[in-house]
Design brief:
With 361 residues, the chain is an alpha/beta fold. It is 35% helix and 16% strand. It is built from nine helices and nine strands. Helix 2 links the parallel strand 2 and strand 3.
Amino acid sequence: MSTGPTGAGTPPVSVIIPCYDERRWPQLVAAVDSARRQSPAPAEVVVSVDHNDALLRRARRELTGVTVLANRFTRGASGNRNTAAFHTRTPLIAMLDDDAYAHPGWLAGLVAPFADPGVVGTGGRTLPAWEGARPAWFPDEYLWVVGASFAGGPAEPGPVRNVWALSMAVRRDVFSAVGGFRESFGKVADRNRPEDTELCLRMTAASGGGRWWFVPDAVVDHAVSEARARFGYFVARCWSEGRGKVAMARLDSHRESLGSERDYLRRTLPRAVVRGLGDALRGRGAAHAARAATVLTGIAVAGLGGMVELARPAGRPTVAAPRPGTAGPEPDPGTAAGASATGTGATADERDAPELTSGRS
């Protein structure tokens, strides 16, 4: 399957960029600029603001050539993305996070596989952009903690179970048919759930087995703040990951919904531990032993989080159900001067990196 530049027959695509915190303004501006510079150019760039009045006003005042909307659903990443996605009318929708920068060719790469009608969505490769020095104890196998492609994940073009919403493209009709992201199953406050993985599973089922395609040449840089490079953040993300995947499995009726995670635990992580300990014993530095210990810590913390989630009663997350007569929930009546925001502004720790995993199906 080709992943090169799209031709004259490429269907139109819109790019949506959710945001929530004015302290990330420089990153948002860079993300918007990287989307607008793509070739072929997107039909529309839509920025959605998550219940933050000050950021909404600034975005409408300073971001030119884009549509700016207020999140009209529940506060959180899922409702914010749905707001932007359901506003669009192009057959394809690409998604980029406000702290991600798309390399040239990103959009063309994501769009090309849709020449195959069996492809319902695509995702690209994510590189970590560390604000400070990368910790010596941080293993490549856990780069998903900071929203980057990780060792053991997909590396070549091909079908995958799921991709990450920070660099994703979807067929609008299938996305709308399933109601978009589950609003009560996303990232908000101290809750972190694999809403992108769960979306991929629902879209695959709704399309009768449609495929997700990994495009390694569609590259984005994802900012990693110094706060996210701390061991405490690593532990918190592993805890959330364990809980989130158990919650997702409860929602999904497919037996193999956690197949990628099982392979990751049985193969990728044990190899990482053996390699790290072996390198340490051969005198190649204490950092190798530290990385092996970090892998074991991540397994233990995620497992404990999963057990805690199993002990909780199952909830009933909802999706933004399409309204009669529309391709999705009723679109926001405004564009650049659309609906006003309400509620309080989000804090800097209210979003986390995307979830594990983009593992092969």
